[in-house]
Design goal:
2 domains, 79% helix
Amino acid sequence: MADTIVITPKNGGSRLIKSVKGFFRDNLGIIIAFLILCAFLTINPSTQNTFFTQKNMFNVLRQISTNLYLACGMTMVIILGGIDLSVGSIIALSGCIAAGFVSRYNLPIPIAILGGLTVGLIVGIFNGLVISKTTIPPFIVTLATMNIAKGLAYVYTVR
């Protein structure tokens, strides 16, 4: 009950006011961005007819799906007290490999997806083994893996 705010005539709601002010102070950037978005959608009538369409909503959801999967995995890593800097580069490498399987080798899309997932799995297993079997900090291991995966993706796409 220590976190509960009770308004009594004695304190006059001053703790509630301080809590509300603290909330707005901590989230000021998000609130301003939200108000600007609302103003833009209200003032600019050309966006009102195109922004909230079914096609645009599916496009937005399709574009953020990668970040959703990334966030789910990173949430577990952060909850366990770890860090993984290589996630973006591994996603890039896996995507390049999958796209290369389709464009270079004319493999079916499901096979290409499995190939990309396999590459991501192998790199993830490598990270896990190095972190768990050595005394190298996860920050250093994933920083090195990030650069390796980024370089491999670059070499694979330039070739």
